[in-house]
Design brief:
Length: 248
């Protein structure tokens, strides 16, 4: 059985500004670029050499993979890109400030929209500045699959077909697979791997730029629940920071 490496993109410009991002295609901040480089160095120093790479269709994940692989002298690896690894679509919250949203709607509603399993934010209007309707990269997506908002359950439903069809066969063949994606598409995958309950998943947060390694049994259950971060101390602090986003 192969090894699975999960890597959330480095800090994005909107992460730094505290805005809900979702499918809006913002770039990495300078800090995020440094995090991506560090992520590649951690892989190199741990002697983990992916055979294949999978990313979303969003710049922050694509560039994180490119920068990390370049740092590990692995820029030549084959890459597959898919909307199914995109960040969760944040609906009408895309572009909104997290702290202001928390202030305006209160802690409970903020957490329901941010971390509940099955309650999506309000849908985004097709003519909204931050809508992706009409974006060329989704031209081949059947209209009924183009989201206007998503809850985490929606992300699980659209991510798992790619996990089974594209990633599982590579792992079964003994390959090491790097998935460079987003906080919530990775939360969806970790929920599946570690069989985390629909309520308990609200407490899981993924840090930016720190590789999370899963050694898997033949039945795809993790040898260690939760996997192992290549820099556990940095991950612990970064997870706390993600959890507290939106707090003054
Ligand atoms: O899309 C976003 O805003 C972030 O990348 C993920 O945000 P969250 O951690 O608030 O879900």
């Amino acid at each position: 059985m192969g090894k699975l490496v999960l890597l959330r993109h480095g800090e994005s410009v909107w992460n730094a500004e505290g805005l809900f991002t979702g499918w809006v295609d913002v770039d990495l901040s300078a800090t995020g670029e440094a995090e991506a480089r560090k992520g590649g160095e951690l892989l190199r120093d741990a002697g983990i050499r992916p055979d294949t790479v999978h990313t979303s269709l969003l710049r922050r994940a694509i560039r994180t993979a490119n920068i990390a692989l370049d740092a590990a002298d692995l820029h030549w690896l084959p890459v597959q890109r898919t909307w199914r690894l995109n960040e969760r679509h944040y609906g009408a919250l895309q572009g909104k400030n997290k702290a202001q949203t928390r202030e305006e709607y209160g802690e409970e509603q903020f957490m329901v929209w941010r971390r509940s399993y099955d309650t999506p934010p309000p849908p985004i209007a097709d003519d909204d500045t931050y809508s992706q309707v009409g974006d060329a990269r989704y031209a081949d997506l059947p209209p009924e699959l183009m989201p206007r908002t998503e809850c985490l359950a929606d992300v699980v439903d659209r991510m798992l077909p790619y996990w089974y069809d594209a990633i599982v066969p590579e792992l079964s063949a003994g390959r090491t697979v790097l998935v460079a994606a987003h906080g919530n598409s990775l939360r969806a995958l970790v929920k599946h791997l570690d069989k985390i309950g629909d309520d308990a998943i609200s407490g899981l947060n993924i840090p930016t730029g720190i590789p999370l390694v899963y050694e898997l049994n033949d039945d795809f259950t993790p040898r260690k629940t939760g996997g192992e971060y290549l820099d556990p101390e940095a991950a612990k602090a970064a997870i706390e920071a993600v959890k507290n986003q939106g707090k003054k």
